[in-house]
Design a protein that fits this description.
Helix content is 52%, strand content 5%. It has 86 residues and is mainly alpha-helical. It has one domain: Clp, N-terminal domain (Double Clp-N motif, Orthogonal Bundle), CATH 1.10.1780. The radius of gyration is 14 Å and the shape is flat.
Length: 86
């Protein structure tokens, strides 16, 4: 994955996804972390797109938070994050 080829917003989403994974003590960044990061900004494009397909950002956010809560956590030793292949 060539991070430099992402848009600025894409790079910010990946960085925020890493932060979310670190806060949750998750060892791997999953698509749910990326989606959670993309749902955070108010000026983003994800919420309007969800609205166009009939989904609400609140519902999706709740589902994502539930999924993130079920991911394995690493609590001992240094945390080593790995990005999944997108």
């Amino acid at each position: 994955m060539r991070f430099d080829r992402f848009t600025i917003r894409g790079q910010e989403a990946v960085q925020e996804a890493i932060t979310i994974a670190e806060k949750g003590q998750n060892q791997q960044v999953e698509p749910e972390h990326i989606l959670a990061a993309m749902l955070e900004p108010k000026e983003g494009v994800v919420k309007p797109i969800l609205g166009k397909i009939g989904a609400t950002a609140q519902t999706i956010t709740s589902e994502i938070e539930a999924a993130l809560a079920n991911f394995p956590q690493v609590s001992a030793g240094p945390q080593c994050l790995s990005l999944i292949h997108i």
